[in-house]
From TrEMBL:
Residues 15-75 form the HTH tetR-type domain. PANTHER family: HTH-TYPE TRANSCRIPTIONAL REGULATOR RUTR, MYCOFACTOCIN BIOSYNTHESIS TRANSCRIPTIONAL REGULATOR MFTR-RELATED. GO terms for molecular function: DNA-binding transcription factor activity; transcription cis-regulatory region binding. Keywords: DNA-binding, Transcription, Transcription regulation. This is DNA-binding transcriptional regulator EnvR. Residues 38-57 bind DNA. InterPro entries: DNA-bd_HTH_TetR-type_CS (IPR023772), Homeodomain-like_sf (IPR009057), HTH-type_TetR-like_transc_reg (IPR050109), HTH_TetR (IPR001647). PROSITE patterns: HTH_TETR_1, HTH_TETR_2.
Length: 214
């Protein structure tokens, strides 16, 4: 029994150390930017050694992607439980909005690190992460629509549109925030809504244009 309790305490200590590293990294990324933050600064602020850091993470890049992946996972979960009668784009928007609001309630952290200055390798990794997520979202939407070839085309287009709108909303939020300040997460729901409204306005213009050709 003693060895089991000791093992449990050890695992809890590891979990606390990992969470402390993540929390400190978020704060430093927000205060001074991702490119300017070093592993040494993170470990000093967390009061652990660099050797300890590398037991949990291969590099500081891993810390940047954690919040983004957690956000993606939350959106996928919300999308799976949306009412099946909802239109695909509406369901995706509501899933994103619910996930953002969950982040504001501190269920998890909304990814709020500026995308510029990340370096080629991390930028490519970020792009691959988005592409992988887009494929998963498209698959969930296709299942909701019934899975036929026509449904898959609609699901693919909807996933690409919705995720592009999300990225545009993030980009707009960063552009409207001075470089030395961290974007305010509470402003993001409205930014997301505005981005989706803009996208739908453009789709409506295209629909009317195509209708005149009939």
């Amino acid at each position: 029994m003693g060895s089991i309790e000791q093992g449990g305490r050890r695992e809890r200590k590891k979990a606390l150390t990992r969470e402390r590293l993540i929390k400190v990294a978020r704060e430093l990324f927000a205060e001074q930017g991702f490119p300017e933050t070093t592993v040494q600064q993170i470990t000093e602020a967390a009061d652990v050694s660099e050797r300890t850091f590398f037991r949990y993470f291969e590099s500081k890049d891993d810390l940047l992607l954690l919040d983004l992946v957690a956000f993606f996972d939350r959106v996928e979960f919300e999308l799976r439980v949306r009412p099946i009668e909802e239109e695909p784009l509406v369901a995706l928007y509501q899933s994103m909005l619910t996930s953002v609001r969950s982040g504001l309630d501190e269920s998890f952290e909304i990814p709020m690190v500026r995308p510029h200055g990340l370096g080629l390798e991390l930028t490519n990794q970020l792009a691959r992460t988005y592409i992988s997520w887009e494929l998963r979202i498209a698959e969930i939407l296709a299942q909701r629509l019934g899975g036929s070839s026509d449904c898959r085309l609609r699901a693919d287009v909807t996933a690409k549109l919705g995720i592009s709108v999300l990225r545009a909303a993030f980009r707009e939020l960063f552009q409207n925030t001075p470089e030395h300040l961290r974007p305010e997460p509470a402003a993001f729901p409205q930014q997301l809504e505005c981005a989706f409204v803009s996208a739908l306005d453009e789709c409506d213009l295209l629909r009317r244009l195509l209708a005149t050709r009939d």
